[in-house]
Each structure stands twice: as C-alpha cells, then as structure tokens.
Amino acid sequence: MKIRDVRAMLLTAPIPAERQYTSDLGTIQAASAAIVVVETDEGLVGYGEAKGTPQVMRGIVEHELKPLLLGEDPTRVEYLWEKMYTGSRLGLSLYYGRSMAVSTATGELMCAISGVDVALWDLTGKALGVPIFKLMGGDVRTRVRAYASGGHGRLGEIGDQFLGYVEQGFHACKMRVGGKDHPNMVAGSAARVKEAREAVGPDVEIMLDAHGSTGVTAAIKLARAVEEHDVAWYEEPVIHHDLQGLAEVRRATTVPVATGENLYTRFAFRDLALARAADVWQPDTAMAGGLTEMRRIAALASAFEFRFAPHVWGSAFLWAASLQLAAALPNYSIFEFGQPYSPLLYELVTTPVKVEPDGYVEIPQGPGLGVEIVPDAERRFAFDPHTAERKSLL
Ligand SMILES: [Mg+2]
C-alpha cells in the first residue's frame, strides 16, 4: 500500500447568532478547520485535523509535506513522522539516533505534521481493520470520564450554566476567568467561581481557564482567592511561553496549575517539566505533533507524576483522535468536551458526539479513528476565507 495523494480539506461553518459565545478571545462567529486527507493506491482514506490557520495548513501540507509522503507506505508512521520532522537530515537523525529538526519545526509546521500523523494512524487502523488503540497496545478503558468545557456565563448566569452541565451528566466543569472578567479580573472572576461552587455543591470538580490573560501578580491573587472553593486546576494563568512566571504562580498557591495547549513537541514539555511549572499537562493532538508525539509527552508526564489531561477543542476528528488516546493511555486522566456549539464537532461525522448520562464518553470501536465523515462535508461546510476566522475584536 502506498500513499497516492495528500491534501488539506478546508472547512467553514458559521455559528448561528443565538449559539455564539464570548470570551476574552472575542465572540466566536464561525468555526473553521483544516482536515488532512491522505489517500492510498488501495482506495483507503485517512483523516486528521491540523489546527493551524487553514490556508497556511494547506500550503504546508500540500507543498512541504506531500512531496515527502507520496509513494511511501502509510503504516510506517514513526518513520514518516521523523521524515517530516527532520526533512533532509532524516538519514543523519536515524544514524545518530537524535532528531535533527528542520529549523521551522515549531508552530504551524507542527500543526500540519499533527494532521498528517493522525491521518496515517487512521489509515493504518483501517488497513488492518482495528481501532488505533489496538495499534497502541490495546485499550485500558472503553469509556473515559469527561469534563464540560465552557463556563462563559457572566455573574448571575454561571451557576445555572454549570447546573446545565451537571444535568447532562458531567461531574466536572470548566469556566473561563481572567480576561473574561475585564476590567475586574480578580474580584470579578472570584465572584463567578463562588457562584459556580454554590450552584453545583461540593461534589463537582471545578476548573478555571484564563487563556494566559491574568499575568503573574493577578493570577496569584485570584488563585488564593478561590482556594476555599476547591478548584481542580487553574489553566494558563499566565501567557504560555512564560514558564518561570507559571512556576511562580504554582509555588504561590495550593490550586493546581495547568498548561500545554500552546506548546509543541515533547521538547517543550521537557522544559515545562524541568521548570516544575505545571501540575496538569494539556497538549493538543492536532498541534503538539499528532498521536505519535502525544504518546511521548504522556510518558514524560507519567515519569514526572504530572496529570495528563489533553486539550480537545476543534473538529470531530480531533475529538475522535483524542478518544483513541484516552483508550490507550493509562495516565489519560480526563477528557475535555467543549460545550459551545460547533457544527464541525457535532455534524462532521456520522458517529454521535455525546456524553453519557453518567458523565463518560464511549470510545468508538471502529477501524482507525472509528468515525466516518459525512458524505457531503466539503459542500456543506464550504470554506470561506472571509468567515473562516471571524471573531469580533475587543
Ligand atoms: Mg484552555
């Protein structure tokens, strides 16, 4: 079996006004995605999300990565990962046993590699007729505990919003804080956390996410202010590249600190480990290097005894890839389930995207990723560069 074609399928789905939500990142008016599609000479097709800017993903996938992949056996996933990551120094890297990354192997290139990597795993599973978790050593669980990720409600709304998540079955809920409560980041966020805790009672895990907006001083103030509300983690209290600042926050509070959705490759997580900056690691399968790199990052987290709780915020293909990882990895602790409505999560595959009444998500058991794309996806979610990244400015 050989790779015959590699392309990026770009999708856009406007979100109806009544289902849009607002955070410090703006009001999200449309969802967009770049899905890598790898086709073989035997007619099999693999899919994987690449979570960079869609047009940039198309450029990298079709002009830089495709020439490295055409004619190759798609089941040689580790080999092809190394080839994409080291480029012309593949031979040197394999000879010395040390990855000599191409100079651009960060950011957008890693997003593109992630999409290809997941598509190769999907193809390998489909070729062998088994789910990806079987290729990774078999399943340690058939379903995974999930948390509701949303909590954009204002003061006076957040309690009811969290109760809505609990009614769906969730026993853990995440809310946005910090920049969301501008210009009253500390007291405003603390008041919303108090409202959320009083609404759901003591038995529901509450997580906070500041999208890197609070900064060290305000983050420490907010963390200390919410310690009494038993917060499970405080995510990205400071901007993602400030590992020392993050470590300062971690040392100043008993609230566990989380980060990782903006970090790429195991090397960034090595630095995070050495800085002892976060209790909870949240790499994203569609950004950090695909399933291949996620397994390496998970092993690092396990060795350092940090909690592994990947970031899952994108299309149904990221959702499905993350579930395969949750099935295979013993230290995958909890599954992120985005609550704001996105057509590319709920309507892109024929498999139901849902939480069970006890707060768990079932792992799809079909070959590869275990999901099937809807037949008219490219027409139904036709890419529109003018709405693809449409967010209101603050
Ligand atoms: Mg986050």
Summarize the structure.
39% of the residues lie in helices and 18% in strands. It has 394 residues and is of the alpha/beta class. It has two domains: 127 residues, 2-Layer Sandwich (Enolase-like, domain 1); 232 residues, TIM Barrel (Alpha-Beta Barrel), CATH 3.20.20.
What does this structure look like?
The protein is α/β, with parallel strands linked by helices and 394 residues long. It has two domains: 3-129, Enolase-like, domain 1 (2-Layer Sandwich), CATH 3.30.390; 143-374, TIM Barrel, CATH 3.20.20. It is 39% helix and 18% strand. Helix 4 (107-128) crosses helix 11 and helix 10 (265-274) packs parallel to helix 11 (290-304). It starts with a strand and ends in a 14-residue tail after the last helix. The mean pLDDT is 96.
Please name the defining characteristics of this protein.
2 domains, 3-stranded antiparallel sheet, 14 helices, 18% strand, Enolase-like, domain 1, 9-stranded mixed sheet, alpha/beta, binds magnesium ion, TIM Barrel, 39% helix, globular, 394 residues
Write the layout of secondary structure elements.
Layout: E1 3-14, E2 22-23, E3 26-27, E4 30-40, E5 45-50, H1 54-69, H2 77-86, H3 90-96, H4 107-128, H5 132-135, E6 143-149, H6 158-168, E7 172-176, H7 185-200, E8 205-209, H8 216-226, E9 231-235, H9 243-252, E10 257-259, H10 265-274, E11 280-281, H11 290-304, E12 307-308, H12 316-328, E13 335-338, H13 343-346, E14 360-362, H14 377-380
Parallel strand pairs: 6-7, 6-13, 7-8, 8-9, 9-10, 10-11, 11-12
Antiparallel strand pairs: 1-4, 2-3, 4-5, 6-14
Helix pairs in contact: 1-4, 2-4, 4-11, 6-7, 7-8, 8-9, 10-11
The structure holds magnesium ion (MG).
Magnesium ion binds at residues 209, 235-236, 261.
